[in-house]
Amino acid sequence: MNQALTASELKYGYRPSESIVEGFNLNVSSGEWLGIVGPNGSGKSTVLRMLARLVTPQRGTVSMSGQNMANMNSKAIARQMTMLTQSQEASLDITVRDLVRRGRNPHLKWYEECRGKHEEVVDWALQVTSMRALQHRSLLELSGGERQRAWLAMCMAQTPCTLLLDEPTTYLDIAHQLELMELIRLLNREQGITVIMVLHDLNQAARYCDRIVAMKQGSVVREGKPSEVFQVDFFRDVFGIEAKVHNDEGVPVFLPCGVVRPLVHEGIT
Ligand SMILES: Nc1ncnc2c1ncn2[C@@H]1O[C@H](COP(=O)(O)OP(=O)(O)OP(=O)(O)O)[C@@H](O)[C@H]1O
């Protein structure tokens, strides 16, 4: 299978002497759905930002379809890759359709307007995300779940090969979480979009992802199919919790039972 994205030996720190991510390697195949999991502060979002070239690795390289992203211009990257985060700009007073049109910018020349075939792509993006009925509403008039779908529609209008998502379901209720996950599954399975998603809900990760990469303190500590990764010792070693793991028709389902050692704030015991 073709490699959609390859990261080798990534390093990043926000301050000169620190290393938040160190020796990070990743290969993602075209059409794969990869989940990145790990405790708070383990570097998941930092990795995602390096994959999207929102921050530049201090060491190592990220390649997209075999091309070093450091040598690509931003528009070329945006034609192939897009990122949805947990809380997009909430105070934007524009219609859903105008937001989705922005997704066409990487495909337009500086003098071109979003018309003709570009408007057809906008229609398609609204259709596939079930946002047609809301296209003339302002973003300010949408619920959290609808707004997240509107941003996803904008991402789709970019017609990306790869979709990066950073905890996209954080502020959604359980029904809207599942709705978004099902929609992403549809885009992954039917449009062949490669999905790389950071998520905290490990049961959802187990249910939807083809492969899991688990991070701890800036490095990959486990990697494999959900059923290979989500085992009792994983929850103990990576999250410091005792858990029971059940098998639901091949999908691991975990039940947290307690912390191995109490999580205390630094200096407080
Ligand atoms: N802009 C920043 N400036 C300084 N330090 C940062 C910045 N962003 C993140 N950090 C630090 O880098 C570390 C890793 O953060 P990151 O957001 O990548 O972790 P994460 O695994 O995504 O965490 P979470 O699960 O809590 O979202 C944390 O200790 C965090 O405090």
TrEMBL record:
Keyword Zinc: no
GO terms for biological process, alphabetical: iron ion transport
PROSITE patterns linked: ABC_TRANSPORTER_1 (PS00211), ABC_TRANSPORTER_2 (PS50893)
Domain ABC transporter: 5-242
Pfam families with a match to the protein in the record: ABC_tran
Subcellular location as annotated: Cell membrane
GO molecular function terms listed in the Swiss-Prot or TrEMBL record: ATP binding; ATP hydrolysis activity
First and last residue of the signal peptide: none
Keywords: ATP-binding, Cell membrane, Ion transport, Iron, Iron transport, Membrane, Nucleotide-binding, Transport
Bilayer topology: Peripheral membrane protein
GO cellular component labels: plasma membrane
Keyword Metal-binding: no
Full protein name: ABC transporter-like
